[in-house]
Design a protein that fits this description.
This protein folds into two domains: 129 residues, no CATH class; 81 residues. It contains one helix and 17 strands. It has a five-stranded mixed barrel. Strands 15-14-16-17 form a four-stranded antiparallel beta sheet, with no helix packed on it. A hairpin with a 6-residue loop joins strand 14 and strand 15. It is elongated and about 70 Å long. The two termini are 30 Å apart.
Length: 260
């Protein structure tokens, strides 16, 4: 059946060829996420808010802070902003929560903040905070940088269910659920791809399946049972898989086993 024809509202549903479905899915997944970040701010929040320093230390200007409806404190937990002025304990100060800001150092940083320009000598860095177009993604198979080397490169990434970070499962496939996990790289990750690979064990009376996370400097071959979850490029994590549940059987011949 030719599925390239246009249809109009109300037309009968046309079965879609698997090849076309995969090509469209690959195209959409390659685009990534373009849209607002998922941080939840108070209703009165603008680009700059005022919060009280409830910690016992003076917060320098251009520092990351975690805040709530009234208070702020040093930290990179979500929701996160950048102080625009020095703020002593108990004082109020301005905090930028969206748009372009300058921070005093590149490392460590919140996982979902896009670094636009960095100074490798521990100088100021320009970042994009909670703005349309950065790489925040909070659903299944979310890849997040969680540790850095002393030189500022990513040393560890976690793969979780971003919508439910406490879950032991990071996402679902049509074979088995996938447990949340981490990938580490001694010396830090260079540019490359964080992938999910399907492992098939055929030694028993019926095949069994498992999944492993892996990092590759090169895109995996199309015939391999591998899905790219995210790309590490320029010292940042860019989410690539945004398709929810992974259907291995739409791409590969995966047996159900005897009696299944």
């Amino acid at each position: 059946m030719d599925t390239s024809i246009s249809v109009s509202p109300g037309d009968a549903w046309h079965p879609e060829a698997a090849g076309r479905f995969n090509r469209v899915s690959d195209m959409l997944n390659a685009i990534g996420v373009i849209g607002p970040a998922g941080q939840c701010f108070p209703a009165d929040t603008g680009a700059v808010i005022t919060r009280t320093n409830t910690s016992d230390v003076t917060i320098p200007a251009a520092s990351y802070v975690t805040f709530d409806s009234h208070d702020m404190r040093p930290g990179i937990a979500d929701p996160c902003g950048v102080t625009l002025a020095e703020c002593a304990p108990g004082d109020e100060g301005p905090v930028q929560v969206s748009g372009i800001a300058e921070v005093s150092c590149y490392y460590p940083r919140p996982a979902d903040v896009l670094v636009l320009k960095k100074n490798f000598h521990n100088g100021p860095s320009t970042v994009l905070i909670n703005s349309t177009g950065h790489n925040t993604y909070r659903n299944c198979f979310k890849v997040t940088a969680t540790a850095w080397t002393e030189r500022g490169s990513i040393a560890e990434v976690s793969i979780t269910d971003g919508g439910n970070p406490e879950s032991s499962v990071c996402g679902l496939t049509d074979v088995t659920p996938v447990s949340a996990g981490t990938l580490t790289q001694e010396g830090g990750f260079g540019d490359g791809y964080v992938c999910l690979r399907l492992i098939v064990d055929t030694t028993g009376s019926a095949p069994s399946y498992s999944h492993v996370f892996e990092f590759s400097q090169y895109e995996p071959n199309a015939w391999e049972p591998v899905v790219i979850l995210a790309e590490i490029t320029g010292g940042q994590v860019v989410q690539r898989w945004t398709g929810g549940m992974i259907y291995w059987r739409q791409r590969f011949i995966v047996g159900f086993g005897r009696g299944r």
